[in-house]
Design a protein that fits this description.
Four copies of one chain form a homotetramer. The longest helix of chain A has 25 residues. Chain A is built from six helices and no strands. Helix content of chain A is 69%, strand content 0%. With 117 residues, chain A is mainly α. The interface between A and B is large, with 71 and 71 residues.
């Protein structure tokens, strides 16, 4: 079983290639597929209280893990077909977010960053 | 700059801890935040043709990379707070999908898996 | 100002026609636009507690009303271009839901309907 | 069968009351439920071409109508529990959009409004 992000990406690409599905994997279609799966993650939590969502039983955790995985696989595919290095892009975005949300101004607050500007 | 998924996860967790934001990061709230970001990915593509989405200019690619990164960061946080090993969960889900969509039945087709059962 | 759903639909269609935007309004594109707007509704609530979401101040209520309206307008457009009578479809769906969720079995419970079958 | 938006809203509210479900219907939860249903609308179109989405067969049209109806019902509920008059809010938002997207500047173009400002 692959144990790294690169191995997983390679496996996902092989899965798609074996089924000749790359023809359907335009970024537009993949973005739709990703948000559909994100919706299935949300569905698990929609009627739970926040507290309940923090204490999932084994079955719910398994279910969330599966939907999260589907979301992740489409996210990897979007990065792939757009030529985006996901780890690099995420680190650059965190650099941006760190400036948008300086620790001394936002600590402990959930207000939107626009309120600090 | 971190260069692996584990390093990225560690960095994200430290970012959250420094801002004392873990208190807002119930799985329920994080699932909402993730789908909001997924929506911002979709927004980039909504009026494009599929063909256009396959040929992004540098500015659009940068924008998609940023929104995809935000989606990814919340996805990592959901896995974190739910105690899900994302690489392991994704590999297990691909095993399931490989059985649901056998190569000899689905090759080149975009029909839903239910039609094969 | 139009005061009925039919008047609103007529106004929305005229708004689109005046801008020659029907060419972009395939059901596929409109479904993307609708979920993007639904994401903007969700964004308003993502860091609120449920209790806070029940007690919106005037500014938040105005903001939610605007995003809900954008979602609604795209929903109306999907119905329009697909030739769906929204009021009729919604009533038929409520008939279905009433059978799926019989009062005597689901009263006061948030469990999914599948658990009753 | 109810034939107007007001009748539908009344019917939806009665459906919820009969099941004692208002206790779960915080705006936060309803926004989650609405986007989950919007995701099910999107799912119908994710692997279709735009052209295919414009020519739904009877079964697909029925399916889209059902998911659109579920989205609509939650949208009505959000308006209800937030005290928003949906027709009035939508008309006000169209007034705003008409100013953001003046006919003489956007006619036939799918560029985002920010590009006109």
């Amino acid at each position: 079983m692959p144990d790294s992000l690169d191995d997983l990406r390679t496996r996902v690409n092989a899965f798609v290639a074996a089924r000749d599905w790359a023809q359907f994997h335009s970024p537009k279609n993949l973005a739709m597929a990703m948000i559909v799966e994100a919706g299935e993650v949300v569905e698990n939590f929609q009627w739970m209280t926040e507290q309940e969502s923090c204490n999932l039983d084994a079955e719910a955790k398994e279910q969330v893990g599966q939907e999260l995985s589907d979301t992740f696989v489409y996210l990897l595919r979007i990065a792939e077909v757009c030529g985006i290095d996901l780890i690099e892009a995420a680190n650059k975005k965190i650099d941006i977010n760190a400036k948008k949300y300086p620790v001394d101004k936002v600590k402990g607050s959930n207000a939107k960053y626009t309120e600090y500007q």
